Amino acid sequence: MKFRLKAFSLHFLGSATALTLILGTLYFGWYRWPGWRLADVTQVVTVLIGVDLVVGPLMTMVIANSNKSRRELTRDIGIIVAVQICALIYGSGSLWNGRPLYYAFSVNILQMVQAYDIDSHEWELGRQQNADLAPHWYSTPRWIWAPLPDDPEESRRILTGAISGADDVTSMPRYFKPWEQGLPSLRGQLKKVDDVAYFSLGEKKRLKDRMQAAGLGADQKDTMPLTGRGKPLLAVFDLASLRIIGLFKAK
Contact, 226 vs 112, CB < 8 A? Predict the structure, then answer.
């Protein structure tokens, strides 16, 4: 039993180290608050933890036997590690492809833009036409303004396509502009909590309670939803500087 526990401990330590390095790099590089919540990656991370920190070490403990030859034990553990590596590559690949690249103000909402929201064609157009705000493989999240283009026909085409499920302007880096340039437009789209879409009546009450608990008033036109693939957040702005002073969960 002592041999099995030692094998389990060593395997767990190695798996935990590898997983911590990968998840830590992704989190601090791209998924810092509010990215982790908005991207809704809990399921992927749960699978990674389950395979690499639970199933793998437990299987090692089961197959570890001091009576086995070194060659046989190495082969058995190698098979387990290979399965773990496959799961780790799949999970970390999913997180990498879905990493947050932008937090965009567009029309009347804030929206998180992930890497797989932008196809290769739009990546290339962004680099050609808007190099300063175009994404790169090493890009970390930036706050930007994503207005519709000035050309009415192009704007109509994008809006019509977005309604039918095609790419929205938030997936087109060639149209992105600096965050500061969009602030005058953003100011005109701020709403009271009660007037914000995306939240139920019960959620709005909880949001107002949390704002008041944080020392913020809940009766001003100073909020806007921040959306992603997960549950939306409520962004609260300072009306003087238009700086975000709070991001609140409804649940």
Answer: yes
Q: Do residues 161 and 167 touch, judged by C-beta distance below 8 A?
A: yes
Query: pLDDT at position 162, please?
Result: 79
Closest by CA position to 118, among listed 96, 103, 101, 106: 101
Contact 170, 111 (CB under 8 A): yes
Q: Quick check: helix, strand or coil at residue 57?
A: helix
Please check whether residue 8 is in contact with residue 64, taking contact to mean a CB–CB distance below 8 angstroms. Answer: yes
Q: Which residues of 209-226 are buried (b: 16+ CB within 10 A; e: fewer)?
A: ebbeeeebebeeebbbbb
Claim: this prediction has a pTM higher than 0.85: yes
Q: With pLDDT > 90 as the criterion, what percentage of the chain qualifies?
A: 70
User: Where would I find the beta strands (DSSP E) of 100-178?
Assistant: 100-106, 109-114, 142-145, 177-178
pLDDT-derived band at 108 (thresholds 50, 70, 90) equals very high
Going by their DSSP bridges, the two strands 223-227 and 109-114 should be labelled as parallel
CA torsion, ordered 124, 128, 134, 135, to nearest 10 deg: 30
Q: Tens digits of per-residue pLDDT, 174-232? A: 999 999 999 999 999 999 999 998 999 999 999 999 999 999 988 999 999 999 999 99
Beta-strand runs (E) in the chain: 100-106, 109-114, 142-145, 177-178, 223-227, 233-237, 244-249
Report how far residue 61's alpha carbon sits from residue 221's, in angstroms, rounded to the nearest whole number. Answer: 59
